User: Fold this.
Amino acid sequence: MDLGGFSSGTLTGLREGVEAALIVSIICAYLARTGNRRQFPRVFLGAGVAAVLSAVLGVALYVTVGSFREPYEQLFEAGTLLLAAGVVTWMLFWMRRQAANVKSELQAAVDRALDEGSVTALAVLAFVAVVREGIETSLFLVGQAASADQGAPSVVVGAVVGLAIAVLLGVGFYQGSRRIHLGTFFRWTGIGLVFIAGGLVAKAAHELIEISVVTVGNQTLFDLSRVLPHEPAGGNVLGQFLHVVFGYTATPEMTTFVAWLAYIAVVLTLFLRPVRRRPPAGAPAPVQS
Assistant:
């Protein structure tokens, strides 16, 4: 078992799984409160189909990565890594903006589905809500597995463990548990995902350097192989852990390091900015002086 791959997979599965579990629990809690428990199977059906579709997409992408020959394999892998980092970055900021209003918006959508009386409306609502998280998770896990080399199975096992914990937390949300502060949870796991995504960006830059798509700044910036090697042959568990989770390498190229540092500096600064709360619907507009 590769500890780094397992840890990064667990964090991803937990963070993204909790978002999906929270959405489903909000829908179910509102249905229960309005006397519509009989609609639960439709919600679970929609969420289940979304989860299966996301898993199939992830497997298809991962298998495709290994089916190309050089240099197309590196190009496809770099594209997948950048896409995964981009999607996760977008979703982090989307969740950051929408967190305060997601509950009321979901409840309004449930009301519309019940009013329309459609047998599939709730299933579609749950599907759309969960598939967004599922596709994001699949892309991110494919990127992590591709960059983990031999640690890919550990990434998958860790993701399954993280998703299982997320399901348990979702049950707790439905039962009214308040033992976990969601704002704090999403903030700290979001910071972790920013660093993991930064590692994917660095890995993508390295792949492009390998096939000479990027020809500037290819010289080794520093060499920490004797102190903190990242290769399994080095026998340093910490180096291997940092390599799989955060994309650390003991001999980074200048372009790779700059890409990693620029991503972390920009995205983390924006992510940690205070959120401007949107005024509630129907609130009077501020008077202009």
